[in-house]
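In the design runs reported in the main text, the only information available to the sequence generator was the tokenized backbone. The following block is the verbatim input for one such run; it is reproduced so that readers can re-run the procedure and compare outputs position by position.
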């Protein structure tokens, strides 16, 4: 889960305190929780379980405090993934993570736009179709359209941003910490919720 430091640095750059922790007990005292991630779904979920983070993450989300999943942290919110086998996720959101169909270069890597489906505190002050930096070979298929906050096209339209529970659970497929002005604006909006 290799983008921890870049996410931490982005929050510091914006003037917000951020701390990386290997202590599951530290989650309960946080005002906001960010679950970033790089890598494979199954390995990431295994790592979360082995380190004792699964239940503290679920408990934090249940408190209604702001949560943000990034990249694999976005995908892990869903029920399952077909990446390199079949793996169970956190199951916070109904849906699954699927491989892109043939016909496009995989991974989907580089800049692409997000079309917002509705307004949200996360999108406050952002343009209609901002550009963000993506790196992924699998995409989320949300089972409940009410969870979808943004979509992106890459041969197919896929869910790229989700929001649930009156805008306290958020997750993005792209890397806001690598997405320049729009990415920093999104992180600032999240931190101010």
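Verbatim output:
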């Amino acid at each position: 889960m290799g983008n921890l430091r870049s996410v931490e640095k982005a929050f510091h750059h914006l003037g917000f305190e951020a701390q990386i922790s290997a202590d599951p007990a530290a989650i309960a005292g946080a005002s906001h929780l960010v679950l970033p991630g790089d890598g494979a779904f199954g390995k990431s979920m295994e790592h979360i379980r082995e380190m004792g983070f699964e239940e503290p993450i679920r408990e934090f989300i249940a408190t209604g405090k702001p949560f943000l999943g990034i990249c694999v942290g976005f995908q892990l919110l869903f029920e399952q993934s077909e990446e390199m086998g079949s793996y169970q996720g956190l199951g916070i959101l109904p849906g699954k993570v699927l491989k892109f169909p043939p016909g496009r270069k995989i991974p989907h890597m580089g800049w692409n736009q997000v079309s917002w489906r509705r307004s949200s505190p996360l999108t406050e002050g952002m343009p209609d179709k901002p550009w963000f930096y993506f790196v992924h070979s699998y995409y989320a298929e949300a089972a409940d359209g009410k969870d979808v906050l943004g979509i992106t096209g890459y041969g197919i339209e896929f869910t790229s941003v989700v929001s649930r529970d009156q805008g306290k659970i958020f997750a993005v497929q792209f890397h806001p910490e690598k997405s320049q002005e729009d990415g920093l604006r999104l992180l600032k909006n999240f931190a101010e919720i």
